[in-house]
Backbone:
């Protein structure tokens, strides 16, 4: 770092590659160049549109926007002028605070953390606090914010400047920031609710000690034409502590340094091999031809449990190093990773025919059907009767116990028949990703964490959409597609995830994609 202080309103940060950059909170811009006094001397006045955007912002909990009462117009003008004159001298507002104007133009201040408003500028009040009370002030503020936002991430500390302004120290990276790590960045604008929630989870997830890379490099060398076997040998040979170092992937016979592109290609190619149904480790779900599930027939390979442990470790490795796998799974698989209970609705993505049969059982009288607490399972062409509970073949299904029968059937078909395989996968996965950390996400967020976002061909989507009660020429349908085309890729992916149950686009495009109903 330089020997002199930064220009007021500027902040020094370090990106994930260790490069230093500078944030100008006055203009909300960034630069690689350290600012000079000349560069920071003049702060442009905000335009009316910028001010309006600022006034209309909201926080995730939709905090109440109650305005204090107003004084006369002359007093409002005087207060506004005084506020503008003092703002540059006092610096930016503390984290969680916002300045607004009454309809008459008088400035007031909103504390989104405590959900209160005041006429008093918090920078002026905190500047008057004696330094001897600074520790008590920090403790009070920390207690207040922790009750609403939870504790700070591991390695973070809240402090006060000599003027009483709150800032945060990240001891992990030895940097400081004005931004509360539990809140979206001050640079984010018009961030929707779901993204704020996911961003909070992601910041917490990445800030934990278990998710921080270890200094050094981990070298892995594989051949493209044998990437599955070579990767298995390499990844299982290297200790977990080594795998947490920066990955340096090298393809046999190819020169070059891995600055991220090679490792991305490595995970892309490896995922195509690992989840290839021809290896009998995973299979396509009966619901479609593009989401994957663990194959109950994997026992045909005597080493299958070792491979599942490797696949779990590889998936954990990809998440740890912020890489994606080109594979998408049934919703029940994500829920099993998160240890969420499996329901009948999860059966729909595994086997739609069995789902409809079990749903029919719940909705109709089955007293005379002769069902027992057993299911038929296909094991390498042989039909085997499996008891869902001890003595199940002698226990009739009645109206009183049919809910238990349906739940046990779902549990067996989704979880129990692949129990050994999933436990091996889970053991490898949690070597790199702690169980308690991954559980902050839900199953849809976990799908995006593993597979990322994909580009969507809107024209192909339109071409293979089935309209029920509407036609493509209807005005409302045309409005819908116009709106979808104007979405960014993330919103398009989430819409597709909502309507089809997955964010995965099949190899053959939307013609192979089915709706979630």
Residues:
């Amino acid at each position: 770092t330089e020997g002199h202080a930064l220009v007021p309103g500027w902040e020094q940060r370090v990106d994930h590659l260790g490069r230093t950059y500078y944030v100008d909170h006055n203009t909300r811009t960034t630069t690689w160049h350290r600012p000079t006094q000349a560069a920071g001397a003049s702060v442009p006045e905000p335009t009316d549109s910028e001010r309006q955007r600022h006034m209309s912002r909201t926080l995730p909990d939709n905090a109440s926007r109650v305005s204090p009462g107003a004084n006369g117009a002359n007093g409002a003008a005087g207060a506004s002028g005084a506020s503008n004159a003092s703002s540059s001298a006092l610096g930016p507002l503390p984290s969680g605070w916002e300045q607004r104007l009454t309809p008459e133009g008088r400035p007031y201040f909103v504390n989104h953390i405590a959900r209160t408003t005041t006429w008093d500028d918090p920078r002026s009040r905190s500047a008057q606090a004696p330094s001897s009370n600074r520790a008590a002030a920090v403790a009070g503020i920390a207690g207040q914010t922790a009750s609403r936002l939870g504790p700070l991430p591991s390695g973070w500390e809240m402090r006060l400047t000599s003027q009483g302004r709150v800032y945060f120290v990240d001891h992990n990276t030895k940097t400081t920031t004005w931004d509360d790590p539990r809140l979206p960045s001050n640079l984010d604008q018009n961030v929707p609710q779901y993204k704020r929630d996911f961003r909070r989870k992601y910041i917490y997830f990445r800030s934990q000690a278990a998710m921080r890379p270890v200094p050094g490099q981990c070298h892995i060398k594989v051949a493209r034409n044998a990437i599955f076997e070579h990767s298995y040998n390499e990844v299982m040979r290297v200790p977990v502590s080594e795998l947490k170092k920066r990955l340096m992937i090298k393809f046999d016979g190819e020169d070059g340094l891995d600055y991220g592109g090679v490792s991305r290609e490595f995970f892309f190619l490896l995922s195509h091999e690992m989840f290839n149904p021809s290896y009998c480790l995973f299979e396509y779900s009966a619901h479609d031809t593009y989401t994957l599930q663990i194959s109950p027939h994997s026992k045909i390979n005597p080493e299958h449990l070792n491979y599942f442990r490797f696949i779990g470790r590889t998936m954990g490795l990809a998440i740890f190093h912020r890489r994606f796998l080109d594979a998408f799974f049934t919703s029940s698989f994500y829920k099993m990773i998160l240890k969420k209970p499996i329901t009948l609705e999860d059966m729909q993505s595994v086997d739609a025919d069995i789902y409809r049969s079990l749903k029919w059982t719940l909705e109709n009288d089955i007293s005379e059907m002769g069902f027992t607490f057993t299911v038929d399972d296909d094991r390498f062409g042989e039909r085997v009767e499996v008891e869902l509970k001890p003595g199940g073949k002698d226990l009739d299904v009645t109206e009183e116990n049919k809910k238990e029968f349906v739940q046990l059937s779902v549990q067996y078909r989704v979880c129990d028949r692949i129990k050994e395989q999933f436990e091996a996968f889970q053991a490898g996965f949690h070597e790199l990703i702690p169980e308690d950390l991954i559980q902050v996400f839900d199953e849809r967020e976990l799908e995006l964490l593993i597979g990322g976002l994909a580009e969507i061909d809107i024209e192909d989507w339109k071409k293979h959409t089935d309209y029920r009660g509407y036609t493509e020429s209807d005005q409302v349908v045309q409005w819908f597609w116009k709106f979808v085309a104007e979405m960014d890729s993330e919103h398009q992916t989430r819409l597709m995830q909502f309507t089809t149950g997955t964010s995965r686009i099949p190899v053959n495009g939307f013609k192979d994609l089915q709706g979630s109903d």
Observations:
- Confidence is low (pLDDT under 50) at residues 39-88, 126-132.
- The radius of gyration is 29 Å.
- The longest strand covers residues 214-222.
- The chain has 20 helices and 15 strands.
